[in-house]
Design a protein that fits this description.
This protein has helices spanning 41-53, 118-128; strands at residues 2-11, 16-21, 28-29, 32-34, 56-57, 61-72, 75-87, 90-91, 102-107, 136-142, 148-151. The protein is α+β, with helices and mostly antiparallel strands. The chain has a single domain (2-151), classed as Nucleoside Triphosphate Pyrophosphohydrolase (Alpha-Beta Complex). Strands 1, 2, 3, 4, 6, 7, 9, 10 and 11 form a nine-stranded mixed sheet that branches. The chain has a two-stranded antiparallel sheet with strand order 5-8. The longest helix is centred in the first third of the chain and has 13 residues, at 41-53. The chain starts with a strand and ends with a strand. It comes from Caldalkalibacillus thermarum (strain TA2.A1).
Length: 152
């Protein structure tokens, strides 16, 4: 099972969210990536976010724990655990060119309209609609091409 972390960074003064547009599908995501052996989820999210954005997170808070199942013909073919953080304090400036795609500060009210995985839409809505105090725990089932089958 692969473990990944990501973070929704909110600039509250500008009411914007830093997002990464992945080149493969053009989907917008919260920056992050795979955990390394021996890392805590907090260490991983800070390291991955800095690698992808150039920004150092200050006190990210865990807001989502998601099981992601990839299924084909009724059989599980892959499984991930994703730990999603929220942060509104940071140091540094976003990279002009991220190794993972295009970085952009997006107006908070526009995030729901951006193309993204259907499961990502669920947790972005939860977190950005002022329910940041609640820990969201969900299981998503996808096809191998990341079509959402269901979530609970």
């Amino acid at each position: 099972m692969q473990r990944v972390t990501n973070c929704i960074l909110i600039d509250r003064e500008r009411d914007e969210v830093l997002l990464l547009q992945k080149p493969r599908r053009g989907w917008w995501v919260a920056p992050g990536g795979k955990m390394e052996s021996g890392e805590t989820i907090r260490e991983a999210v800070i390291r991955e976010f800095k690698e992808e954005t150039g920004i150092t997170l200050i006190d990210p808070v865990l807001k989502g724990v998601f099981t992601i199942l990839i299924e084909e013909d009724g059989q599980r073919v892959d499984e991930w655990m994703m730990f999603t953080f929220v942060c509104d304090q940071y140091k540094g400036e976003a990279l002009k060119h991220s190794p993972e795609g295009r970085l952009a500060w997006q107006p908070r009210h526009e995030v729901a309209r951006l193309p993204k995985a259907k499961g990502d839409q669920v947790y972005f809505e939860h977190i950005l609609e002022q329910r940041e105090s609640e820990l969201l725990i969900l299981k998503f089932r996808y096809t191998p091409d990341y079509t959402l089958i269901s979530y609970e």
